[in-house]
Amino acid sequence: MTEIAASALATGRQAAAPAPPSSATNPAYDPRLTNEDLAPLEKQSWGVYNIFAFWMSDVHSVGGYVTAGSLFALGLASWQVLIALVVGIVIVNVFCNLVAKPSQRTGVPYPVICRSAFGVLGANIPAVIRGLIAVAWYGIQTFLASAALDVVLVKLFPGLAPYAVVGDYGFLGLSALGWVSYLTLWVLQAAVFWRGMESIRKFIDFCGPAVYVVMFLLCGYLIAKAGWGAIDLNLSTVTHHGWSAVPVMLGAIALVVSYFSGPMLNFGDFSRYARSFSAVKRANLLGLPVNFLVFSLLVVVTASLTMPVYGELITDPVATVARIDNTFAIVLGALTFVVATIGINIVANFVSPAFDFSNVNPQKISWRAGGMIAAVGSLVITPWNLYNNPDVIHYTLETLGAFIGPLFGVLIADYYLVRKQRVAVDDLFTMSETGTYWYRKGYNPAAIIATAIGAVAAMFPVLTSGKITGMYTAAQYSWFIGCALGLLCYRLLATRGRFRLSAVHYETR
Predict the structure, then answer these.
(1) How many CB atoms are closer than 10 A to CB 120?
(2) How far apart, in whole angstroms, are the C-alpha atoms of residue 361 and residue 349?
(3) Helix or strand holding residue 401 (H, E)
(4) When you count CB atoms within 10 A of the terminal residue's CB, does the N or C end of the chain come out lower?
(5) Any domain includes 34
(6) Which of 108, 45, 89 lies closest to 290 in space, CA to CA?
(7) Residues 379-410: pLDDT tens digits?
(8) Which residues cross the membrane (predicted)?
(9) DSSP code of 23?
(10) How confident is the model at residue 20 (pLDDT cuts 50, 70, 90)?
(11) Helical H segments across 60-123, by residue range
């Protein structure tokens, strides 16, 4: 976007090499809803450290660095930023625990657990929405990592500099060197993904800690150059006081939640592998509030030291590393951040669409095929052109929140408020009209209507931002608006009126 690691590391070493997870495909399950990747797991073996490492990979990236640093430049005092960070990340922690529980208890991924709320066929709606969003951000994150690789290549081989200029050697808006870097990372990510979830687990177990090592080394280098007295936690020249700081702090809280909204929604894709829900909660506590705060403080200390050392504020860690005189340090630092960005990309934007697209047609689209569809799609949309347009980025972030919020709200309302934490697992995989989740021809109108209401209401301020007074501010809270309306509308529709759900007998797992 940080963060007591000793106990987490100790716990992780006890489960350093869990056996590869396997799925149980019941012969009675309908093939139109089932494959080995979507079926309930027979063995759930991930420990505290594995989930903790997942969050480290999610937080420790170039995007996470820049975002955390930006909170200290909003015109808030350091204590105000600290409060906003704590509140924001605690909200994320609570929501992640909520969304983790149904998948951990049933052993199924996000799109499958969505069948309980949306219907066995209706679940494709949230799956496709989340999958398409992930494709766009997969491409953008790959581009960010490739830009870091460009810095390393030009630094090592100055003769490549002309090939990094789009105007001289460019195609479809990307330089020749940019294409080489992008495609290289595109293939590397696909290779890690293709080896399966165990390889992904091992990869993310390494990524998060590796970035911490480089971050501490970079911070130590800058302290040695500038001295301890040069550290300044206030990166802004303007500070809000009194009540004027409240809206800015609320905006910072919303930014933290929005940043994690994607992986938060499909966190069940990973919590399903955990051996217990208590392990998930301990890992989330370490990986979110603790880890996020430590990382954020490390970011602001490092960024503040760039002022006395380089004469300007640098919020991009790769750009900071590039200023170091030692070639080895530049290569080590930049490549570490590249690896970290690959880590967050795989966990946040590769695994999710793999499950989501596989859910659409399990017999024709395997988990690996779903991931490859996402990879190809991320290349076709030429993400560097999206990233180079600030207006598109602005609308993408808020639109993401507007659609993800209602999906989250409906899922939480169904599992906790309507179903009372009970799931008929086998009925998630049946097309029988007597199945619990058949609803109306495989679709639950209550969930679809609630999602539509939440998304439309949340998108209104996004589309009218700058045209109607107050909408610019409201657009920042699109996730909260969509989530609240999705939850409330589903709770209302599912418990009364023509779409009221009938009482059923559950087989809990």
Answers:
(1) 28
(2) 20
(3) helix 390-412
(4) C
(5) no
(6) 89
(7) 888 888 776 655 565 566 678 888 899 999 99
(8) 81-100, 120-140, 171-194, 206-224, 244-262, 283-307, 327-348, 369-387, 399-418, 446-464, 476-493
(9) B
(10) very low
(11) 62-71, 78-106, 110-113, 115-118
Q: What is the DSSP letter of 88?
A: H
Cα(193)–Cα(186) distance, rounded to whole angstroms? 11
What would the two tokens of residue 495 be? 């418990």
Three-class SS of residue 46?
Answer: strand
pLDDT at 145 (0 to 100): 79
* 281, part of any domain: yes
Which one-letter DSSP state was computed for residue 41? B
**Separation of alpha carbons 286 and 283, rounded Å:** 5
- Using DSSP, state whether 440 is helix, strand or coil: strand
Render 153-199 in DSSP notation, one character per residue: HHHH-GGGGGGG-TTTSEETTEEHHHHHHHHHHHHHHHHHHHT-HHH
Q: Where are the beta strands (DSSP E) in 236-358?
A: none
CATH number of the domain residue 150 falls in: 1.10.4160.10
Give the model confidence (pLDDT) of 189-223 as tens digits.
888 888 877 787 888 788 778 878 888 888 888 89
Instruction: Quickly count helices (H) and strands (E) in the chain.
Output: 22, 2
CA dihedral 422, 426, 431, 432 (to 10 degrees): -80
In a domain, 507, yes or no: no
Has residue 378 been placed in a domain?
yes
Beta bridge partners of 274: 46
Residue type, 340: A
| Spatial contact of 411 and 486, defined as CB atoms under 8 Å apart | no
Query: Which tokens go with 298?
Result: 């490390």
Structure tokens, 157: 């081989």
What range defines the domain where residue 383 resides? Answer: 50-495
Q: Considering its fold, how many domains does the chain have in total?
A: 1
